[in-house]
Records
---
Amino acid sequence: MSEPAANPPPPPAEPAPEGGEDAASTSKKAAKKAEAKAKKEAEKARRAAERAAATAAATSAAETEDLAKDNYGPKEGQLAADAIEINLKTLGEEHVGKTVELRAWIQNTRVQSAKMVFVELREEGNWAIQGIVAANKEGTVSRQMVKWVSSINSESYLLVEATVQKPLEPVVACRVSHYELHITKCYILAAAPAGLGMTLAAANKAVTNFSDEQAAVEEGVDKLSIAPASEPAGVPAASMLTHLDNIVMHKRAPVAQAISDIRMEVKELFRSYLRSQGFKEFEPPCLIGAASEGGANVFRLPYFSTEAFLAQSPQFYKQYEIAGGRKRVFCVGPVFRAENSNTPRHMTEFTGLDLEMEIKKSYHEVIDMLEGVLLHIFRGLKERCAEEIELVRSVYPSEEFLVPESGKEVRLTFAEGQKLLREEGPEEYRNVSDHEDMSTPQEKALGALIRKKYGTDFYVLDKFPEEARPFYAKEDPSNPSLTNAYDFFMRDQEILSGGQRINDPEELEARMRKKGVDPKSPGLKEYVDVFRQAGVPAHGGGGIGLDRVVAFYLNLPSVHLAAFYPRTPKRLAP
Amino acid sequence: MSEPAANPPPPPAEPAPEGGEDAASTSKKAAKKAEAKAKKEAEKARRAAERAAATAAATSAAETEDLAKDNYGPKEGQLAADAIEINLKTLGEEHVGKTVELRAWIQNTRVQSAKMVFVELREEGNWAIQGIVAANKEGTVSRQMVKWVSSINSESYLLVEATVQKPLEPVVACRVSHYELHITKCYILAAAPAGLGMTLAAANKAVTNFSDEQAAVEEGVDKLSIAPASEPAGVPAASMLTHLDNIVMHKRAPVAQAISDIRMEVKELFRSYLRSQGFKEFEPPCLIGAASEGGANVFRLPYFSTEAFLAQSPQFYKQYEIAGGRKRVFCVGPVFRAENSNTPRHMTEFTGLDLEMEIKKSYHEVIDMLEGVLLHIFRGLKERCAEEIELVRSVYPSEEFLVPESGKEVRLTFAEGQKLLREEGPEEYRNVSDHEDMSTPQEKALGALIRKKYGTDFYVLDKFPEEARPFYAKEDPSNPSLTNAYDFFMRDQEILSGGQRINDPEELEARMRKKGVDPKSPGLKEYVDVFRQAGVPAHGGGGIGLDRVVAFYLNLPSVHLAAFYPRTPKRLAP
């Protein structure tokens, strides 16, 4: 079809590529400039699209009768009765030559001539297929229809009738590369605006500017290792704020959907593994009557004639379940921290994966279980989410997450970790003490040493000093300056804190007093009394931060990217 | 062993049975009296146990050397190296004659003679086995040991070494009836107090007094059909407040654990069914920036320099996921209502099971899906939780929950329901209107008619009048006085509300104005604008109240019994 175009085709709704940009040069200034440019481009594109639409409307009226006029339009029309409903994921040889129907977003338009236009149609995730609208002699697909389809705004939702064909060459631009759709009818089910607030291409780029957090990052106070962004030619990246302000396009980006899929698989793997190990799920409350785990970082709210607090963890409730006759429990749900920290790894609401279990002989039974469930998650992700991980890596490059071989799990005591730091770590850690908690930079330095020495991104530090653990932590019976408590790490950063808990009320009160906590204070008295109601088995557990597991596994530059609707001190919307 | 007892055995820690009480006569007065009596009994038992313990301590010193002295005691001791760890659920023929170890709660003690005592040992749920401590000639089990075991307080947690034997006759009192444990060693891992705040027998009885709610129940304002309590001879029931004040014993009762198991299976069945139907899980936030779904019943809290609200439903967020390119989503999590209603079916925090999906041709696709998942849950419970359901029924008697046969699901339009009420319902409903929402008593009357007519406890009312539905409900295109919205019912009570949502921003604004809602108000403007960001497919869904599904399926007298930690306007603890 070499016939020249009768009318100049309207420009595609998305701005055209404009040549590459060096990834390494993306400084703060460049990012700002790029964003301003993106906005300008979007505005320009919007105006062009509007002009094109107006022209199209004016000329179409003047043209000859359109035999295809019922086969396209801005409202749903009638498809062939025998059209087979398809979805792109399961499209196969059996559909070739058949009339099919598809509901999908139009993500790109490429005009070939006045008689032919190529479109990309996308379903959920990155499942896209090439469609062709080509005017035919019979007039069931007309030039007017071609022109009209060319003018549809990107990200409109369409109903399409088509014949499935095999392209001469695989379509590299689309995930479905071995089939294409020869479109016979096309209707808009829901129109997108002429100019999108953020294009899909921009939405699918790495976020490098986390605005509110930027200051903190630059100060290096709480800096996450920011993965270098991959930069498809000419599409500038958008800031996290732009993403949140354009939540629809943010979520439509394949990278965002892949991260969500991975996150949900972590939850599912956590639950299914624990169920198979005899754990019972339960639900702790969010609203609680006392700020029992420390008052500083707790949200408080008026509650009828009294006051309520939002739970900072399900700690006490997990223990109540064990006291209440369960041998093993887990829960998955939101927890809240009223901490005014504007960094890439803080949120005010996040999801906890928690477990608690009876200890029979040693609290290492709990470490075994926690290692077991996390390794199950890591291995499960690799198996079930290989494509999603690859997709995320194409936007946020990362090294594979290193997991120890079965039987070669890495557990150091806190003291061993400090010794390693002193002996093999950077100069400034030559004098670190065995009785002071580690700082974040210390953790990172130790993580690097461990990766070098043991080849793993996942390891455990056990036997934390008494000073570093809360009042409910059980002291090591053979050395009361230590506790039977541990942290788990992924890529140098803590993702889990846990330990054996005190199950004897007298011992609990004594340790509370030693830690300067009043065992008679509101909330704590009720907590201690639970262990007086009846005999409570020895028990321990841990709490895993879901957002952190996802972000660190994928080496994302912020936990905010791992959350569905990140909550920060400055942001409660959408 | 007919030898008479050398010393009078200490009385068992739990009050002895005292003859039956007629279930039907349990009025409010009787319940109060019974509770007072129970307290007295508990106190009496406690004192008796203390006396017995004192006597035992005094006499044992005077006795001869105890060859068994290392085989029992208040601290953990050494078991045989070859002792096999068992749990009661999997105890089998292969264990007979073997030395085993078991950790369990002692729930009952029956002294046979100075040389022999029977104990009941319980693991999680209602898995219990009979143990026997009998003094032997070798002295490895001594009279002193028998006496000491007899004095252990009920609900202490024990470590036991024993030989598994087959009893002469099945032990009817225990779930494990074909094996018994001949105990050779016995240590207390965690001691219970001499007097329990609530005995296991009392905890396992039906709660009939919901105190705070009692007034409302008596006024009949919001009365749930209270199942008649089954009354094991002589054990008085405790009020809901007593249960909550004794949370450990409340949770140890097999009935509470069975209800929890059923609840968690509902969640699991919900998730697994929807995953199999291509749904993606997501997590909506609890903290939101605007009281977008109505300000009256929303909790508000100070949030750094601004204000936050607790989500009353995930409605908007489910829709954002659809707008964001998901075809089908679900979520499971807490929702909050600041409603000062003290009734057996209100809570301030409860769990929602929510879904939202694209509509291709008709919103009946959504009804099909919701019916599908609920029927899957009902059938799954019958299959997977038959024992738990039976156990709950032994405490809270109920008729089997009637489910329609496949293909015979009952769907009436709201108007058909009202017609049925007018024509076949009680006198007072002769004039009910098709354009006014139903009251709770009306719902109950209609439910009774439907059960009689169709033999089902599960049905759908569709096409609710426009007046009765929120601003986001889609009007019926063929009759705008109706909506494409529905409620689902279980045993005459609503458990689900849902419908098709408006996906066009102009239509949405128009309906908001019609309903007197300002589309520019905080929260709502952002909501409407989401549909302007890009083309959003037609969609619908529904929200299921998990607590209600459990309570109504089992016909429990209050949703509070279905919750793990019920939150009411007057109760935030434990």
---
Amino acid sequence: MQQVRVGLIGTGYIGRCHAIAYAQAPVVFPLKGQLVREMLAEVTPELAARQAESLGFNRSTGDWRELVADPAIDVVDICAPNFLHKEMALAAIAHGKHVYSEKPLALSTRDAAEMVDAARRAGVKTLVGFNYMKNPATQLARQIIARGEIGEVVHFYGTHNEDYMANPATPLDWHCRKDSAGLGALGDLGAHIINMAHYLVGSRIASVSGDMQTIIGERPDPREPSRLLPVENEDQAHALLRFESGVMGQIETSRIACGRKMGLGYVITGTKGCISYTQERMAELKLYRHDDDQGRQGFKTLLVGPEHPDYAAFCISAGHGFGFNDQKTVEIRDLVDGIAAGSPLWPDFEEGWRVSRVLDAIALSAERRQWIHVEEIN
Amino acid sequence: MQQVRVGLIGTGYIGRCHAIAYAQAPVVFPLKGQLVREMLAEVTPELAARQAESLGFNRSTGDWRELVADPAIDVVDICAPNFLHKEMALAAIAHGKHVYSEKPLALSTRDAAEMVDAARRAGVKTLVGFNYMKNPATQLARQIIARGEIGEVVHFYGTHNEDYMANPATPLDWHCRKDSAGLGALGDLGAHIINMAHYLVGSRIASVSGDMQTIIGERPDPREPSRLLPVENEDQAHALLRFESGVMGQIETSRIACGRKMGLGYVITGTKGCISYTQERMAELKLYRHDDDQGRQGFKTLLVGPEHPDYAAFCISAGHGFGFNDQKTVEIRDLVDGIAAGSPLWPDFEEGWRVSRVLDAIALSAERRQWIHVEEIN
Amino acid sequence: MQQVRVGLIGTGYIGRCHAIAYAQAPVVFPLKGQLVREMLAEVTPELAARQAESLGFNRSTGDWRELVADPAIDVVDICAPNFLHKEMALAAIAHGKHVYSEKPLALSTRDAAEMVDAARRAGVKTLVGFNYMKNPATQLARQIIARGEIGEVVHFYGTHNEDYMANPATPLDWHCRKDSAGLGALGDLGAHIINMAHYLVGSRIASVSGDMQTIIGERPDPREPSRLLPVENEDQAHALLRFESGVMGQIETSRIACGRKMGLGYVITGTKGCISYTQERMAELKLYRHDDDQGRQGFKTLLVGPEHPDYAAFCISAGHGFGFNDQKTVEIRDLVDGIAAGSPLWPDFEEGWRVSRVLDAIALSAERRQWIHVEEIN
Amino acid sequence: MQQVRVGLIGTGYIGRCHAIAYAQAPVVFPLKGQLVREMLAEVTPELAARQAESLGFNRSTGDWRELVADPAIDVVDICAPNFLHKEMALAAIAHGKHVYSEKPLALSTRDAAEMVDAARRAGVKTLVGFNYMKNPATQLARQIIARGEIGEVVHFYGTHNEDYMANPATPLDWHCRKDSAGLGALGDLGAHIINMAHYLVGSRIASVSGDMQTIIGERPDPREPSRLLPVENEDQAHALLRFESGVMGQIETSRIACGRKMGLGYVITGTKGCISYTQERMAELKLYRHDDDQGRQGFKTLLVGPEHPDYAAFCISAGHGFGFNDQKTVEIRDLVDGIAAGSPLWPDFEEGWRVSRVLDAIALSAERRQWIHVEEIN
């Protein structure tokens, strides 16, 4: 069986989640390739060695450039801060590696486009970590839509709200700076809901009318809390959308939405039914069918189970639950199988670039106070 | 005690609800005036007589012009189809009557403005039937916001979606024609959520970017079902809002939103908390406070009770429920008390006109594909 | 049309609710008789006169004995404290009046039996105010069961928990004394859930194994708060049940169940489905059908609407809500129609007596620590 | 670092879950010992080899006796069918191995007692797989109770209902036979809720009054579906409980409860608050505090997060979810840490035996129709 040897860069928040999923994936799924946790890069050799030990990687390095150049690596997994994604991905591609990058793909659409081109020219496979679409409940939603169970989609409403920056006393961090994060809530959270919209509606977003605000304009300097530093990007944004299919949509994103801990959600209305979902109850999906008997119509709460995509590999009993890292495990199954079998991966860098275009279009629309065609963004 | 003698025009859907509330109000509340169900008008004398008998009115007439001119009437209650509101209200005002009209106030902002002017010049009181804001749960929401319990409002999201026209086989009716209804979902349902936005946010909507669609373009002719007639107004609409206070908002309305039976709802985010509500669970309000203890944060489900506005008059035990017509009963208490005590009524015709302006601004924005300042609409 | 002239005794909590429903009923329903609010009795002539004025009754009296003897009264409605039910009902029956009594019917099964006998001998109609079973959602539940939509019932779980006595500082009142209330939580709340069990399961309770406790043994004397008085009956109780049909059941009741404001609820499991309900969301019913398609099974939330029993008279749109007093309005419709049409009323005194037997059986079982056959209670 | 070398017997449903958790645990947690997936036993050498390969175990065997005798095994993990638990555990103990067994510990209380004695005499550590109590939400519930946040517990209500045998056409399997399963729903599901009651209430169950039924008396022979075989144990059971502390409790369990996919749940009422939970929403807990401000009382939905026990190791953001196998991962952390550090494990075999006593007491009580003291069961 072909080996798929992974080099992981970065072991912070999401890097650890990747590591948990790497450990779990080969037991959960009958993978098409032999997944090898080959090498791990961190900012110092010591930290790298310690993390390799605890996360189960064979080797480690304090220099990510060494990792991307290592001949025993097949795929480079980028979990480093956003502003490094581009440089790392291009370097990995230059060495002929497949690349698996966390979202957002890059700080700008232009950068993303460069990455797409490089990957295409090199013929390597790419995958972006939009893990929420790998959740069985959301895969089920897609399946229900694709099978026509709610008729033709007529409206999409999506949110990705969280409250991690809701407290004005929370110090400024990289999320709030243009040079390290690019966009604010749009880039960090909105990216997920745009990808979700593409996936679920099955059509690309064609044009947008957006608006956005920075609510907390200054935050304490983390090194000297009595000093306030300016927040450089938006705390909240929302937009009207039109998909290429003509479907109307609406999205909303915020990092200061008090009360939302994992407020990704969607309501998708069709001509014959409706789907409603919130990631805070990630193992259930609400489904309404307008052709149910009179007096017996209503939203039905479906608990995910073995009849639904990718659930049975974790547990064969319905309603027993599904966890955050389990989504990453599905994503990694896709990664390994795609590389081993030579089949396409999705969401790939191109999708990452498309998402970036929509986000930039929303920001531009908010600035210009007018509708923007996504294809105008380059 | 001063009498408040009501003349009711129209006893269809909402007219019957008014009648139920008129019967209930004097027992529920210690009214400041003596409510008298004096006269009722319907399209024929026979129907009027029958309805007066069953709804408890003293007299009846087949001619609404007789009713508005009757000297024993203090307030004219207009529950006739929308396209008649203006004519009836102006006639009632001409006779010096106070006017209580169902929403939408008129078919156009221009008509609404005329009604506002006439009422102002005549010095009569006016009230528009935006009954949902009279519900204790929503009054509580307003109270929570006004007291600063969720900090400063930073975002408003509101919907009023229903599915009464979701079935394409449902014949065309007056809702779908411009001459009888004016706008579609916006006028019939959206009006409520705009009024709600004004009430809850405590600031007027200043500008909008809207979009709308007619999904079911043709419907059966009710008199000859094999023939299809064109639907003349929108099935669904949504918009971005900016309030005068600078707050960002978003609304959505549809009459074909499969699954929504009474899908009026709102999520109001503040700097210190959040409120979430759906009219389908009209006796509960969800409240989140960001300053709750770490690990003990979460949305709390408040069941309305005697501590909340206007609940105790119906029942002195919390959580025992509140009904649709009970909202109208509160509205009628406001009407009778305002007239008897000579105090202001709200939402009055001016608010009806303001709501109309916002709706027209959304429609115009959808057409022009640009933001519209509400004050441009006249 | 035949008149049904009501004499109401007592205008406290529930008496006011009756009055609201009397006002509403003739407008909501096309009653079979002409409902007349004829006379009202309170503890003093002054209070009676004031209440008659505000509640819309023609005449009043400070002596309930005068009311029950009045020739212009057809039905006596007893909303006085529990310990007076028997005396008033027997007096009313002696004058040949129909009797509509609030629950619990009497302080003991023996007293209830006497009332049943008296009514039967006099040939008068009786009705007990178990209003929760008149709610459209619960009528729908009964309909679903009776039609076999969930197969054969195999388990009943019911609660009626509230927290009105949860605070130990709440002074002792009549609820806590044997001479005024009889049983504690069982009599005040448990009565409803026993009636509900009979109604929904469609079979009588045959035997019980019960347990109960007084958690707050002493409470402040309302006249001298520093003095503590003993609580004489149970704060909470629960029981296993066997119905005559063999079905297993379980009930629970408490007046100190922190968090439950109107915690009447039930889960009824059948061989092909399940129904779940809580009165705190009194306008919705959850329904599960095991024969739904694989992967599309789940509890469906039905919002009550015009297709369901007794909803359309209040509002013709689904999901628009239903209130506490609306249940009483349905009950009063039953009362008036039954008397006017000479048809049977239910739940009648016999059902009140049956409920009392079950409650006494639970209390006896708790004392003896053994199963008790309900028919042993007399 | 000390090694903890595991020998896993059985890789069916729950064995696979263990394997997933073994893979995940060392990455998720900083374990106190080095977890080694040493050996795996299945019914044939071929199957064992295949499973060892896919589940990441070093060695395999077709003979579990070989595994329990292997000198390189520190702890034997028994995931074989229930009727084998005793024999395997005694053999493992005889070889001085620690034992980690799935529930129920044994087919009878007598057998469980024998296992407890053997383990105690051998001085080995034991753990029973009551994984639901390892869930952060339930650990949080325990913490809330232990800290007195809901006052003194006054009532426990618990269920573990599922519907895996609800269809009468489902063939008879080992669950339905006394020789392979012992009790029915009580043994398979009820065991969890009894353990949960002990854990959460913090007091042991002292006496019970139970009832039970076999609803589907015959099922198809799996080898010859046209032939029906008798079901030998109960489909559903419920019981009243008294804890040693005097607290009243109630439990319910069923394997034919249509609609319940993972219907483990509890409502725990205290003198100052209430906790409500269902495993179908395993990442949230509802909490009510009676001392909240008037008009601001209500059940609060807490989403598990990093402030709560054992969540942060999986993800550092609140509300991001928690999965079924994650509970097992916490359990395995307890196992490895306990063995490596020489500290006590819980729930141990003694707790397994205590649970068994309660279950047998319920069954005996149902038969004798009387209350049974748990200590009478041996």
